[in-house]
Amino acid sequence: MANEQEHQFRTLISCSQLATALAARDDSDTGHLRILDCRFDLGDTEAGRRAYIHSHIPGAAYAHLDEDMSGPILPGRTGRHPLPDADDFARTVARLGISNRSQVVLYDASGGSMASRMWWMLRWVGHEAVAVLDGGWDAWTAAGLSTSSGEETPQPGGFSASPRPELVVDAAEMLAKTASGGALVVDARAADRFRGENETHDPIGGHIPGASNLPHTGNLHDGLFRDPAELAARFSELMGNRPPSEVIFYCGSGVSACHNALALEHAGIGEARLYPGSWSDWITDPTRPTAQG
After folding, report:
1. Does the predicted model carry a pTM greater than 0.90?
2. Is 251 a catalytic residue?
3. Residue 29, pLDDT score
4. In order of start, what are the domains of the chain with their CATH numbers?
């Protein structure tokens, strides 16, 4: 078991590493390597599925942000992508062919912002052998690596969740932490949306008072994640002496914030916490304070 853990990918995997793992896989593999295509467009929610059916990494199943990585939306009570029930998500994970011994690889075509949501969610239910493909679909195709078309339906896996509620912050705790200064709250959205400008997804623009802005796109350079030392410097400048357990990431709906969580982990700093409901959940209660600028 120790040897198996040594060869797990837990943050990122390169295209060459995934190609090698795919080439080594054979019919005796009972589900160790599982690949999920997480491509998604907030403006066209079926674009990712169409792209997947047209062409995808061989062996990949498709994971839809709204259907597979989100729970039911309750108007006026939840954000745009609420977390599903942990047991419901565990059933989704199993349907996608993942077992507790699987090495999971995730990719998208948006710099890892969608794939990192699934990365965080799998960590949330206790699965650590999960990694995002660095550079995603664009890097895979640019390298001329093999692709398949059509829809692939994996054999269901045997997955048992071990939820980690300590990774999750709800609105009430977020309000208490921001009021007391008991945590570093970090908004992963672009600077204009943080300021309350050019808001295209939510009815109210702005940010949670006291939050700092660290756009998730800054984790990348030329489409790839920056090296761990660069990422560590980026986060340490903001965190100072705070431990990662006192850092809370959020964004618009709990998706791109996971990109910061992945980058922090890849930097070797550790695990932060996530406010999954994020801004779209925060603004459902008009008594919660907001800030602009």
Report:
1. yes
2. yes
3. 56
4. 2-163 (3.40.250.10), 168-282 (3.40.250.10)
